[in-house]
Write a structure and sequence with these properties.
Elements: H1 2-29, H2 33-57, H3 63-84, H4 92-111
Pfam family, one: Multi_Drug_Res
Main location: membrane
Membrane topology: Multi-pass membrane protein
Length: 112
């Protein structure tokens, strides 16, 4: 039971990693100090939550599995957000490599 909770915490931490990357992307787009500070605050909040949850998950999960899974979740979600929100290219090669990254994250969970 404890391991399943730790995996759920790790998945949520990965989502917040994508959240702080998204806030960085929005900071690049906005004009004005108020809007910049708003997205900057979102970045800091997401960063703190992500790191705290990652640390919590590693109390049970090995760091050699948890860290790559955390970064993989964040990377995949960041690319998806980039395509959907920031209109970044969705080429075949990009989608292919995101799929291989997802397969690798699943593989790490299965062997971890």
């Amino acid at each position: 039971m404890q391991i399943n909770v730790s995996w759920a915490i790790l998945i949520i931490a990965g989502c917040f990693e994508a959240g702080f990357a998204f806030c960085l992307g929005k900071m690049k787009e906005v004009a004005g100090t108020t809007a910049w500070w708003l997205w900057g605050a979102g970045f800091i909040i997401c960063l703190i939550i992500s790191m705290v949850l990652l640390a919590k998950a590693t109390h049970v999960l090995p760091i050699s599995t948890a860290y790559p899974v955390w970064t993989g979740i964040g990377a995949v979600l960041t690319v998806i957000l980039g395509i959907l929100v920031f209109h970044e290219p969705a080429s075949f090669a990009r989608i292919f490599f995101i799929c291989t990254l997802i397969a690798s994250v699943i593989g790490l969970k299965m062997v971890g």
